[in-house]
């Protein structure tokens, strides 16, 4: 764990999302990466095409790596990790067997050390550069993610646009479009003429109001409208200001909930397209958070989810004892494929820290040292 | 128009919904109906099965009518009207040609006078027994519907559970389930432990929270949970009380918006499963409404949407000049099938009374008499 890695010990990270995918090979921290991009995830005939996307990215990456080595031979890949958008939901819906991805990584890259995780985990590892704490991810969806001193992961929210993801792009767009519809009807409570005009620019004029119930890409349409709502808030539209305020309250609450698990270091960062591009939303969230958690250190995001996947892969190589499987968030295989027979969802990972020893807040070092507290 | 209808002049009404369908034949007001029931509407291979449901109901009804006449001959059907759940959305999505239903009614019943309408119109005609005013329909969805002295129809909301239908069963269930998810995560803003326990009874224990994004019947699941939220509100759970209060405010606003169109008589009723079965929700809505519209007469619902379809059919027979087509809400055919060539959605029916003469409030009789005001 303290030995430096040998030179030319490459690891591979992959990040698979709804708008695109990417992979990188790294010979070690601070040295240049090889990077390739690929298509977004799709569901085809009721199955996720994640295995195909992973295989394609790995092949492209190895080709690039070969070319970059200029005939000096393809380097050995010592470990690989992939973060996937929607992994848990796809697993539940029977659209993806996360275990199959271990096989694809192992076959494509010739490594026995592989990790498959939800992209919340890789977003955390990227944003905090592998340090402890909690990360708030806000893009189309919203999730708070934290890790404790035993490398146990916790999520807050991330439950989708219908009954969760408060403050996300999808949520803000939904609230904004509802306010536009109210103005069109002549309703008054929560209506916005400004958002009505914005919705007409965004969706075209709709004589009878906008409904998205039967629209397959409703979520991306809503998330696209969020930028208009936040622009209207900056311009002072009261309804839009109220939507932004409710979003910030909800996001701060999600981050606080993730942070409040025992043994999570008091450090936070944010990542994701929406909150990164709307600094006033981040400022509101952090203001709410520091009201209740003045002890927390707020840091800038160190990197992207792809960087987090590389952090995870390098840990498989350098500190494998510090990367336990933590299903359904994270599945680790260290050359022991017989584990694949175990159902992915059965591990006892509690979302809330129930039914295990209550750990005191604020002294993770003492606990880690096994002082008996 | 003032002549009494001849005896044995039967009309037929049909009501097609998401949980079932029904049809009735009536020989005249106050005389016993013949009634049959049928299956709910479905979308099969991208098309609504409404034409098949209508044909089946008509065949069953005529058989019943035959049997009831005991060999005295099948009575002539003089007019027929059908109200459909989701007609406008199905038309927009290319799942249903509303004109095809005129043909099915004409062929199955042997009548030239047919009407095809959204079920909001038949719900209104049933609840107010054909009188003027506005009706609030609250079940899985929520819509305010009003008619002016020129028999022009206006809707408020009814825009679906994603960006509309505030206060409906789907909306209340969605808010309630979001509050349950918050409690599970350890979030605090808008969380409810009471609703978390209720959601576990309703949906079973979900270790990582409930998400419905990939669930085909999400809306009916949400609407089913609304009853639990309203029960928790009755028991005093503060989050549930707040959800019920926001629902009532939104519903009152929807009803007020429908009522505020010029020429709509100041009379209201409510109908639909949710508001009918939850009297305290109706009381809250009416309290908000009378705060802003103390002039409004509140009446009990006179009947169901099926009764409204019979009112509509009888009007086709007795006062056809009073039933203009008012697309996309209502399509009327009086033995002139060449109209069918006209696209259903092109008529200029404004949701808000823009671009036409502003009519003064409160004096519909004078206006109807053509006083030149």
From TrEMBL, chains A, B:
<dbReference type="Pfam" id="PF01869">
    <property type="entry name" value="BcrAD_BadFG"/>
</dbReference>
<dbReference type="InterPro" id="IPR043129">
    <property type="entry name" value="ATPase_NBD"/>
</dbReference>
<protein>
    <submittedName>
        <fullName>N-acetylglucosamine kinase</fullName>
    </submittedName>
</protein>
<feature type="region of interest" description="Disordered">
    <location>
        <begin position="349"/>
        <end position="373"/>
    </location>
</feature>
<dbReference type="InterPro" id="IPR052519">
    <property type="entry name" value="Euk-type_GlcNAc_Kinase"/>
</dbReference>
<dbReference type="GO" id="GO:0016301">
    <property type="term" value="F:kinase activity"/>
</dbReference>
<keyword id="KW-0418">Kinase</keyword>
<feature type="domain" description="ATPase BadF/BadG/BcrA/BcrD type">
    <location>
        <begin position="13"/>
        <end position="313"/>
    </location>
</feature>
<keyword id="KW-0808">Transferase</keyword>
<dbReference type="InterPro" id="IPR002731">
    <property type="entry name" value="ATPase_BadF"/>
</dbReference>
